[in-house]
Amino acid sequence: DIQMTQSPSSLSASVGDRVTITCRASQGISNYLAWYQQKAGKVPKLLIYSTSILQSGVPSRFSGSGSGTDFTLTISSLQPEDFATYYCQKYNNAPLTFGGGTKVEMK
Amino acid sequence: QVQLVESGGDLVKPGGSLRLSCIVSGFAFSDHSMTWVRQAPGKGLEWLSYISSSSVYTDYADSVKGRFIVSRDNAKKSLYLEMNSLKPEDTAVYYCANLGSGGWYLQHWGQGTQVTVSS
After folding, report:
1. Which end of chain B has less neighbouring CB within 10 Å, N or C?
2. Mutating which of A9, A43, A58 best tests the B interface, going by the most B Cβ atoms within 10 A?
3. Do A89 and B106 touch (CB under 8 A)?
4. CA dist list (Å): A72 to A22, A41, A67, B47, B89
5. How far apart are CA B62 and CA B51, in angstroms?
6. Is B49:B38 a contact under the CB 8 Å cutoff?
7. pLDDT tens, A30-88?
C-alpha cells in the first residue's frame, strides 16, 4: 500500500506568515491528492482536491501544488482562523490513506 | 443544505458488536460512493471502508477487513457500518462522508459518533 508522509508534523507561525506543508507519497499518485483542515474538536473539512482545486467557499489564500509523489499546501497569509491540523489524503485507489497530519500552532 | 448524521455509537465490551448508521440529506445520495473514516483519541484520520453508489463495490482497510461490513440503502438515503469482534483499539469517533463526483475525496462529512470499546 502507498504511504503518505506529511512534514512537518507541527509548526509554529504568526498571523500573516506564509505557511507551507509538504505531503509525500511512497509511490506516484498522479494528481489524486486532497487536503483537509480540522480545527480542535471539530469535523474535518475538505479544502483542496485534485491537488490544486479549491473546494467551494475556501479562501484563496489556500493553494495546492505538486504531482506524482510530492505535494504542497500553502497558506499565503495565515489568518487566526487557520490555526488547525491539516491532513493530506491520496485517492487514486483504495486504501484512501491519510497523511499523519500537520498541526499549525500560534507562535 | 448537505447533512450527514451518524448515530449508533456506544460503549461496548471487547468482542461485542455495533451498527452505525448515517442518514443523509441535501444531495443525490444514490449518485455518490460513500466512505467511513475514524479518529482515535488524539490521533489522526484513518480510512475504514468504501461502498460504491449501487453497492456493487466495497473495500476495507486491513485493520477492519473481516470484522466490519459496509452497506447502504439508497431508498432510505442511509449508510451503515456493521462492526463485529470489536477491540479496544477500535475506540474512536466514526465519521461518514460522501465521495466527490470527480474522485474519491471526502466532500462532506458527518459530525461523527463515538464508539468506545472497553470492559
Report:
1. N
2. A43
3. yes
4. 5, 25, 9, 21, 31
5. 15
6. no
7. 999 999 999 999 999 999 999 999 999 999 999 999 999 999 999 999 999 999 999 99
